[in-house]
Amino acid sequence: MQGALAPSKFKESAQPLHLHITHTPPSAGEKPEDGSTAEAAVATDAGHVASISIQPTDFSTGSYGWKGNRRVNVELTNPETGHKETVAVMINVNATVVGSKSAKDPKADEAEAEEKEEAHEEAPQAAHEEAPQATHDTAPPEEK
């Protein structure tokens, strides 16, 4: 497995991901014999709850990946009455690329180094610039 992509490469190449939420457990590695697509499988899945598209994003932590959310209604059977009830559920998905927090853009590293160098060069120069002189008034305050 290779390291995480540079953030700029991720942004250029990442596409949305599409998730299907279902009550039906996945079939381990089985593909439909008829060559049908995932969309066709969803259409025939009696346990299908929702589909969610998650979009490429940068997280505030410095990592990148995909995120998305969707509010869905999930039907449950009340164990006491046997009646079907619907509950509203908010589904939030964050899919972080492993190692992306430490991934850097080579150009960003160069720019950051230049900024530090400029700040280092400007600091001594700023100290030599004229600072406002403090005045000390030694006269006693006027009495009223």
From TrEMBL:
Residues 1-44, 97-144 are annotated as: Disordered. Residues 117-131 have a biased composition (Basic and acidic residues). This is Uncharacterized protein. It comes from Hydnum rufescens UP504. The lineage of its organism: Eukaryota, Fungi, Dikarya, Basidiomycota, Agaricomycotina.
